[in-house]
Amino acid sequence: MTGTADEGNKLVLVTGGARSGKSGFAERLFMKRILDGGIYVATAEAHDDEMRERIRRHQSDREQSGYGWKTVNEPFQLPEWLAITSADAEAAYEGPAVLIDCLTLWLSNELLQAERQWGESLEAERYLEARIERLAEEAGRFRGTLVMVTNEVGDSIVPVYKLGRMFRDAAGRLNQRIAGKADEVYLVTAGIPIELKSREVQL
């Protein structure tokens, strides 16, 4: 984490709706603070041509930036990857710098895996809750700089099917858990980022 503008471990959450500009803002924020390159953790899986094209565009944008990204693909074992990466940093003077894009794609992958095993049951919901808790724990104790991108999915209509409602509710819980541990939380709307954590109302 040499060449950083900020010292010590830091957890940053960037959230927003679809096409809000959150990923671009998260990358710019990361590159401004981490001057000598970092780890980009991608959670998307290419299930169809449209997703493959999205992934290709994101990869191309990172390459054209000229920044020293090291890309890691981790669609499922994200908490475990954070734990291993943080443990590897124990002996180092400074921890790694990591950007994860995005948490809701990871959650979607986990939901589909749970649905295949347990259907739309209480067991699937319990599995998701355990995975969310594990990710929040590992993010909270991560040694280094960690920027996480997520989606706000609860501002639209209520999904008509149960699996969609499970995802929406789980995404809301995930965002709350990470935001609660984060040092900074940014909401990006129409390309404009606002920092929320410093404005939090304590009751």
Automatic annotation (TrEMBL):
InterPro entries: CobU/CobP, P-loop_NTPase
Residues that coordinate or bind GTP: G16, G17, A18, R19, S20, G21, K22, S23, A42, T43, A44, D101
Keyword Nucleotidyltransferase annotated: yes
Catalytic center residues: H58 (gmp-histidine intermediate)
E.C. designation(s): 2.7.1.156, 2.7.7.62
Gene3D superfamilies, A to Z: P-loop containing nucleotide triphosphate hydrolases (3.40.50.300)
Gene Ontology terms: biological process: cobalamin biosynthetic process
Gene Ontology molecular functions: adenosylcobinamide kinase activity; ATP binding; cobinamide phosphate guanylyltransferase activity; GTP binding
Domain of life: Bacteria
CDD domains xrefs: CobU (cd00544)
Catalyzed chemical reaction(s): adenosylcob(III)inamide + ATP = adenosylcob(III)inamide phosphate + ADP + H(+); adenosylcob(III)inamide phosphate + GTP + H(+) = adenosylcob(III)inamide-GDP + diphosphate; adenosylcob(III)inamide + GTP = adenosylcob(III)inamide phosphate + GDP + H(+)
Pathway recorded for this protein: Cofactor biosynthesis; adenosylcobalamin biosynthesis; adenosylcobalamin from cob(II)yrinate a,c-diamide: step 5/7; Cofactor biosynthesis; adenosylcobalamin biosynthesis; adenosylcobalamin from cob(II)yrinate a,c-diamide: step 6/7
Secretion signal, residue range per the UniProt entry: none
Pfam families: CobU
Keywords: ATP-binding, Cobalamin biosynthesis, GTP-binding, Kinase, Nucleotide-binding, Nucleotidyltransferase, Transferase
Keyword Transport among record annotations: no
NCBIfam families named among the record's database cross-references: PRK05800.1 (NF004469)
Function: Catalyzes ATP-dependent phosphorylation of adenosylcobinamide and addition of GMP to adenosylcobinamide phosphate.
Protein family: Belongs to the CobU/CobP family.
Descriptive protein name: Adenosylcobinamide kinase
Organism ancestry: Bacteria, Bacillati, Bacillota, Bacilli, Bacillales
Gene designation per UniProt: cobU
